Each structure stands twice: as C-alpha cells, then as structure tokens.
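On clarity, I found the account of how folds are encoded harder to follow than it need be. Since the whole study asks how a given chain folds, the encoding of that fold should be made plain. The format is easy to grasp once an entry is in front of the reader. For illustration, here is how one protein appears when written out as sequence plus structure tokens.
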Amino acid sequence: MKRTFVTIITLLVVMACGVFAESVWNDADEASPLLVRYKDADKVGTITVAASTVTITDDSNANALSFGASSTLADLYAAITSATNASGAKNFEAAYFAGISGDACLTNYLVTAAATTITKEWNRVLLWDTSNCLHYDVVAGTPGPNTPISGYSINEIYGSPTGTGDVTIEVYEVKQSDQDGNRLFLKVVTSPVYVYGVGYATNVADNIANPLIVLGEGVYIGNDAYGFVRMTRTAATTGGVGFGYNRD
C-alpha cells in the first residue's frame, strides 16, 4: 500500500513538473526556411530550385529569382508571393518556418529540386542546404499563418552538428506578423577542444561537438507563435539538431 502511494505521488510530481513530453529532430538538409502553397485548384503551380535561381511557375508563366551576393530570405518570400500567372493573378502563398527575413539566401543555400507541383496544403519543397548555409535548424510542428502552434516551453536542446568551428546555438520565436523573428536564447560552444594525443605527448584538436543544453524552466514560445532552434558552424556537413518541449 505504501509503495502504491509513493508511486502515485511520483506520477503527480512528474505531471506537475512537465518533464518534456515531446521532441523533434531534423537531420542536415531537412529544414524548410519557408512553407509554400498554391491556391488555384484548377491550375498547376510548380517551384524549381537550381543552384542560383528559384523559378516559380504559375500555369506555365515562369517567375524567376536569381540569388545575388546580398540576397535574403525576404527576397525569396517576396518572389514567391508576388509571382503571377499570365493574367496577373497571384496564387502562391508563403509562410516563414525555419528562417527569418534577414537570413542570407545566396547561391547554393537551398537544396536543388526539379519542378515540384505545389498543392493547396503547406509544402516543404524549399530546404536549407546545410553544407552551404552552414546552419542546422529544427521546428516543432507545421504552422501556417492561420494555424499557429499554441504556447510551449523548450526544455532541452541537443544535436550532432558535424563540422568544424564553434557551435552557435540560438532559439528564435517567430510570428507571421513579425517575420524578423525574436531571438530568445544564445549560447556558443567552443570547438575545437584539445585532447591528449598518443602517448600524452602532443595535444590534438578535436572538432566533435555534441551539445546538450538543459534549459531549467525552459525557453517559452508564446501563443500564436512558434519557435525554431539553430546551430551554426564555420563548416557543416552531416548530423542534425533537436529539442524537447512541453505544451501548455
């Protein structure tokens, strides 16, 4: 009887403390800076991603954005939402996801993709190319302008961002009404670290970084907003990033 009572109390404490109940993870090249959809069910809209150009085609009318030395995600957002068909109608919509308006969006920063038909659902045809943009990103859920995730707290951040250089870890809160985003957390993990070599003779640089950050009470992402976590390195290749969170 006593053991049963203790078990019940333990469960109540766990529920009250909100030990993180959900988690999310993205490998390299899996994060979408923008979600896209096409509104006209009677026509066909496609997006093609080349090394230096994104082509948004509405009912055979091509609209192209060529990336320059200072192109940003805001430029890509504007190109998608201003694309027209031959009659001048605008049928594409975009929503910020694992990115903010000021993010650099240069040549090779997106994973190349052949012409992809965009539906009325939110599509993830646009993906960050981690080895070129040099950051890993992960978002909880699939929000759009009219379906924001309710408030939640990010309790743990973890990752295996394979590469070299310091790991800069950030948490952003984003609302579709504030596409600049709001950075809520910043931490830099120094890399490389130096470890003993063979025979303890010479220190050897070790670039491996597998950060795990416990955030105590957590970083709170407000209602009508969503958060994404980013890890940035000087060079990035494989691996990924994730976080654990609790909903209100």
Notes: Helices lie at 2-17, 73-82, 130-133. Residues 2-17 form the longest helix (16 residues). The chain has two domains: 27-130, 134-248.
